[in-house]
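dude i think i finally got it to work??
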Amino acid sequence: MEITLNQLLSKLNQLQQSHIQLNDYEFGSLSNFGASRAIKYPIMWVDAQPTSFAERQTSISIQVLIADLIMKGQENEAEVLSDTLQIFSDIVSALVRESVLDFTINENLQATPFVDRFDDEVGGWVATLVFQTPNPYDTCAFPEREG
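look at this
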């Protein structure tokens, strides 16, 4: 069964809500990070990336950022990077466990650290998760108008 972008975003939101260390979730372009409201850190920020269609498979890419505040003068950069990397690992592990029916996740991913980013001066990790889902190219399922 094919899974939709909305279903994947909902799954990521559910994982954020159930993870004891994550306090916030947002979907959208990173250029809008922190622009619309105050963020409760640590946050999971997600954004849709290019999707590819191959024979009988759709690969949906979603960029995931896990970020927390870096306190100036408190030397917590290493702690923030360590904690957010562990959160990232938890999220990927949960997705791998659940990926047996409707999707598979490319487990070979590379997360990139960042520090002193955005107006809030946060640090953390960002990676693009690729979800593969069957695409039967079912012409009978095409939503065609009658007439």
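The longest helix spans residues 77-98.
im so relieved honestly
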